[in-house]
Amino acid sequence: MAVKNDLIQKDKSNAPYVLPEHSVYIVWKPEYDLGIPVIDEQHRGIVTIINSLHYCMHNSHIKNILPPTIDMLRSYADIHFQTEEYFLSTIEYPGDAKHRLLHKEYTFKLAGIERDIIINKDPGQLIGFLKKWWLGHICEEDMQFKNYFT
């Protein structure tokens, strides 16, 4: 599908705008999918939010978008955790209690980072935490229950 010429932003030289290489912080890979459509879509949604935050941090848009982005991360994670926990309880997953605890730890850690950002005005620790936590959680913790759904 071709992009209409009037939708491509051009500079004064009339050259098409090219996004900088750092615009995508986390590249979604097929091996991250669990094969549970709603969970996979939510995981990709979280990654999209993280990538948007990263892009804004590197393009001087962070001041205005940081508070709503943190709200979005918190809200989206709450929805995702409720969805995931429902599925885990439905299949009587033996690691359900441990998995719920990991979700609570994420929520607690995100709140702590948010307080630090307000005090120190430095969102740098947030982006690193998000990437490490979500990729670790998806690729390690969530993969442990993948086979319970097949």
Protein traits:
150 residues; mainly alpha; Four Helix Bundle (Hemerythrin (Met), subunit A); disordered N terminus
| Beta-strand residue percentage | under 5%
The appropriate CATH architecture is: Up-down Bundle
Order of helices and strands: HHHH
Number of helices: 4
Description:
By secondary structure, this protein is mostly helical. It has one domain: Hemerythrin-like (Four Helix Bundle (Hemerythrin (Met), subunit A)). 65% of the residues lie in helices and 0% in strands. It contains 4 helices and no strands. It has helices at 37-57, 62-90, 96-120, 124-146. α1 (37-57) runs antiparallel to α2 (62-90) and α2 packs antiparallel against α3 (96-120). The chain is globular, with a radius of gyration of 18 Å. The chain starts with 36 loop residues before the first helix and ends with a helix.
Q: In terms of topology, how is this protein built?
A:
Elements: H1 37-57, H2 62-90, H3 96-120, H4 124-146
Helix pairs in contact: 1-2, 1-4, 2-3, 3-4
Question: What does this entry show, briefly?
Answer:
With 150 residues, the protein is mainly α.
